[in-house]
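Protein modeling request. Please complete all fields; requests missing the sequence field cannot be processed.
Requester role: graduate student
Desired output: 3D structure, token encoding
Chains: 1
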Amino acid sequence: MLALLELSPITFAILAGVIGLLVGSFLNVVIHRLPKMMEREWQAQCAELNGQEAASTADYNLVVPRSACPHCGHAISAHENIPIVSYLFLRGKCAGCSAEISPRYPIVEALSGLLSAYAAWHFGFGLAGISAIILVWALIALTFIDFDTQLLPDSITLPLLWLGLLLNLNGAFTSLPNALIGAVAGYLVLWSVYWAFKLTTGKEGMGYGDFKLLAALGAWLGWTMLPLIILLSSLVGAVVGIALIVLTKHGRNIPIPFGPYLAGGGLIALFWGQALTQSYLQLLAVP
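Delivered output (287 residues):
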């Protein structure tokens, strides 16, 4: 089987796509529950600091309780949880109460499946290909969590940073010195922007989670990819921010999460960073 995956990139891509669809279903759980788990943990810590007894609550994590409709409590059965297929079969409605199911669920599943398949095709079967798929999953989860809550959980960003450094011990994506400098520089660049903005305006322009995410991307792809990631994420963020203000009357004082644009810039750098950088350098070299 391993020999087949090595010799047939399309087989590996199809397998990765199917697994990506299944993982996408789990990513929906992570996106929904992880912020709630963090909030419960913070409440318990605050109660402890105040000398109060933490409120007794039922177990709530990524496994329990079983997924259910938020409107009627209908437990989601196995055949109702098949990625994309179940959503189409149910016509986007709960089997128990016919309440609308958010289209985000199949969108996340489709993104996970398609990007996993492309990562497998792009890198081939091996350490880089499997690792790239894991990075894709993490960035999808971080993107949607940040959209919802403007949080980038340490429980995802910090393991991602350390995993990037470990993978580059053997040069999976770049050399270890390049990765180490990328992690440090990625954090310090946005940390510097944060403090420059805060000292100038008295306001916070971004969160610490953004520093950690860029540090993680630097650990995976190396410091040479950081300018491209920052440029791409800034351009996309600016365009989307202006569009929200103009088209939807999004208030200028309402914060816009930056993590999704960092994640998008990171994915572009992962797949096409070398080609884009070389093309840019060739343009600069033209007399």
